[in-house]
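Ticket 4471: requesting a sanity check on a complex prediction with pyridoxal-5'-phosphate. Repro inputs:
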Amino acid sequence: MRARKLRTLNVIRPISAERIASFTTSVFAEMSRLAVEHQAINLGQGFPDFDGPEAIKAAAIAAIHAGDNQYAVSTGQPVLRQAIAAHSQRIYGQMVDADAEVTVTSGATEALFAAVLALVDPGDEVIVFEPFYDSYVPNILMAGGLPRYVPLRAPDAARPDWHFDPGELRAAFNARTRLLILNTPHNPTGKVFSAHELQEIAALCQAWDVLALADEVYEHLVFDGARHRRLAQVPGMAERTLTVSSQGKTFGFTGWKIGWVLAPPALTRAVRNVHQFVTFAAATPFQAAAAAALALDSGYYQALAAEHQTRRDFVAGALAEAGLRVSCPQGTYFIMANYTTLGDRWADDAAFCRWLTTEIGVTAIPPTAFYADEHKHLGREWARFAFCKRQETLERAAERLRRIRPG
Ligand SMILES: Cc1ncc(COP(=O)(O)O)c(C=O)c1O
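Returned structure tokens:
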């Protein structure tokens, strides 16, 4: 209909709106297609190849049988909002009002979108650390905002972790800055931001009166005794921080898409105003199951972190044995490995990841997809591997990685 009208008017104009003109198919789709084509073991995508706890599945099934099948309350089912608030208090000692400060969304993805759309005006600047989770920049662009990038630099002789330059962060703030997006534990580097780094970020947000959107979906995947710290709990940040998390990464049901955002009442009202017109409500029976999941005792979280630490060590060992230089993550279920130790056969990370898929049979993600053009060179020597897979899958991948020959 629309195409015919355009022809009648003899107007040549692109089908898609200008605000999405820069959007392309994600790198995940491309690498997954290649993985299927070459029957590669897919360590590209960040979801487990196993299910979460049986008891939580049973809770979802029970909710369906009990008739929890119509629209949920838009802000989230009370039982889940209360479970989220109780979890915050139990794990972090953070008091949250389940009615005024918790909103349930369709995964963290919708929480992030609703928050950015609710808070960013056209022309506002939003600070984003690179490499970034891939939905941040499209969200900012859809709101009419302008992303300002602060790159994390790879570990080097002086700093053993991925790190930002405090001067670069300071320089990114100005009177137009509205929001800073922080992801800790950080996908794809596995960095867990330290107390000192969070304080540096917090001081700048306060000095420039900037809001913070903290994406903490990997909050329970932290290793080696490291501790996840909430940006919202840094002094002075509670009133200006929105904390996003979801059940997907913590409980192993990424397909259920239940997420949430915690924020002070005024910010929560703004987020809810968007959420009601985007999805209106998240899936009802999975909200009941997420509430049951959040009620699991802390032994669950300890076992989750310990199991993933074992997987991390296994994959780190396999990659190192294959000749790559591994940057050992403190958190998340991703590991970054530098392939240039294998020689200079590859033009960039995308070429390496394609070769690894087609010739070796293991798929990884090229991280330059998560940098803006001006900083892509900072990621081009690396590949991201997801280790949230069964031991059997990881062993098959390790076996294939042994086929790599340096040269
Ligand atoms: C940093 C980060 N934020 C958000 C998400 C999306 O979470 P959800 O599946 O709950 O929408 C992901 C998923 O990979 C992620 O890595």
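Notes from triage: The radius of gyration is 22 Å. Leaving this open until the requester confirms.
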